[in-house]
């Protein structure tokens, strides 16, 4: 039984094969986003429950599981059931957990808010990650919302003539704006005393080419796959034309009708689809500590690595 975006949907024990079990999926009403209740992620999930969770994730793009009391081990087990471990090339993992990173900010921290620029996680990799899971360990009482914009809705809303022009274009993705030595999280940022374990370096200068119109490998739905965080050019276009085109696309993809604003709560797990969405962090919690634990999820079926790109 597939979830629907038209309203709340319940999956009873006949669907799941688990007496007394019930999953309630409540869409956000925006272009993406839903809440999933009735699933205890601190326990191992059977195949039927996992299938419902995955279907909701693919349909809604980002799904929230409130009121979860998760350990790091629980987070690792749940995400591994969704797909292989992904890479986090520029953030050091926490001790003893090679694929878990902290998204951390201390009450007196003065560095800029981490990840305020719209982006799809690690889109500069040869094979970008399928998804990201982020768990609210310490959540401030105010601020810290995460914004999500649906790239599929943004693509569909482009004029037909523009979709035709863009369909075969490839964009140049790179981590240089964020993680090069002179990037947002480079040497100067470290001097500001950021508490996160960011590992900047020359590897951030590498580039990869990805389609501007990227078909989702599981659903087939096409999404606009560019972002101001990691997209630095359009293959084959002069620099000025490329910059103008990207500026228009960046403005288009964050139009209010494509955006879901997510409000966090302690013990909430958020799972999003990097192949369909871009997202951005927000501040507003000065004087409060914030700590979230994150795992990146790779594709279940290996994809062909993207070629290196060039701005020239």
Describe the structure.
The chain is α+β, with helices and mostly antiparallel strands and 312 residues long. It contains eight helices and 16 strands. Strands 1-2-3-4-14-6-16-5 form an eight-stranded mixed β-sheet. A three-stranded antiparallel β-sheet has the order 13-7-15. Strands 9-8-12 form a three-stranded antiparallel β-sheet. Strand 10 and strand 11 form a beta hairpin. The N terminus is likely disordered.
What are the salient characteristics of this protein?
312 residues, alpha+beta, 8-stranded mixed β-sheet, 3-stranded antiparallel β-sheet, 8 helices, 21% helix, 24% strand, globular, disordered N terminus
Give a brief outline of the structure.
The protein has eight helices and 16 strands. By secondary structure, the protein is an alpha+beta fold. It is globular and about 50 Å long.
Map the helices and strands.
Layout: E1 9-11, H1 13-16, E2 23-27, E3 34-37, H2 47-60, E4 62-65, H3 72-82, E5 101-105, E6 131-138, E7 146-150, H4 151-157, H5 160-166, E8 170-174, H6 176-179, H7 187-191, E9 207-211, E10 213-215, E11 222-224, E12 231-234, H8 239-253, E13 259-262, E14 269-273, E15 277-281, E16 290-297
Parallel strand pairs: 3-4
Antiparallel strand pairs: 1-2, 2-3, 4-14, 5-16, 6-14, 6-16, 7-13, 7-15, 8-9, 8-12, 10-11
How large is the radius of gyration? 19 Å
Please give the alpha-carbon distance between the first and last residues. 49 Å
**Class by helix and strand content?**
alpha+beta
How would a crystallographer describe the biggest sheet? 8 strands, mixed
The tally of beta strands, per DSSP, is 16
What's the helix-strand series?
EHEEHEHEEEHHEHHEEEEHEEEE
**Going across the major beta sheet, what is the strand order?**
1-2-3-4-14-6-16-5
């Amino acid at each position: 039984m597939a979830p629907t975006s038209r309203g709340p949907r319940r999956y009873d024990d006949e669907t799941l094969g688990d007496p007394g079990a019930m999953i309630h999926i409540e869409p956000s009403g925006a272009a993406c986003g839903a809440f999933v209740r009735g699933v205890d992620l601190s326990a191992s999930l059977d195949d039927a429950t996992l299938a419902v969770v995955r279907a909701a994730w693919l349909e809604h793009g980002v799904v929230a599981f409130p009121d979860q009391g998760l350990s790091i081990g629980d987070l690792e087990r749940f995400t591994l059931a969704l797909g292989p471990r992904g890479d986090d090339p520029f953030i050091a993992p926490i001790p003893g957990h090679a694929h878990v990173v902290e998204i951390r900010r201390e009450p007196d921290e003065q560095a800029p808010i981490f990840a305020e620029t719209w982006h799809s996680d690690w889109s500069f990799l040869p094979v970008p990650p399928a998804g990201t899971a982020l768990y609210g360990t310490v959540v401030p009482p105010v601020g810290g919302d995460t914004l999500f914009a649906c790239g599929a809705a943004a693509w569909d809303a482009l004029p037909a003539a523009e979709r035709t022009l863009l369909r075969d274009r490839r964009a140049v993705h790179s981590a240089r704006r964020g993680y090069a030595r002179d990037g947002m999280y480079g040497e100067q940022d470290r001097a500001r005393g950021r508490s996160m374990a960011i590992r900047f370096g020359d590897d951030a200068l590498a580039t990869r080419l990805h389609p501007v119109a990227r078909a989702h490998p599981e659903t087939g739905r096409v999404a606009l796959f560019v972002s101001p965080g990691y997209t630095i050019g359009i293959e084959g276009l002069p620099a000025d034309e490329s910059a103008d085109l990207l500026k228009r696309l960046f403005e288009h993809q964050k139009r209010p009708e494509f955006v879901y604003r997510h409000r966090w709560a302690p013990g909430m797990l958020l799972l999003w689809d990097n192949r369909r969405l871009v997202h951005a962090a927000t501040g507003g919690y000065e004087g409060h500590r914030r700590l979230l634990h994150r795992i990146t999820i790779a594709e279940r079926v290996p994809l062909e690595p993207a070629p290196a790109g060039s701005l020239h």
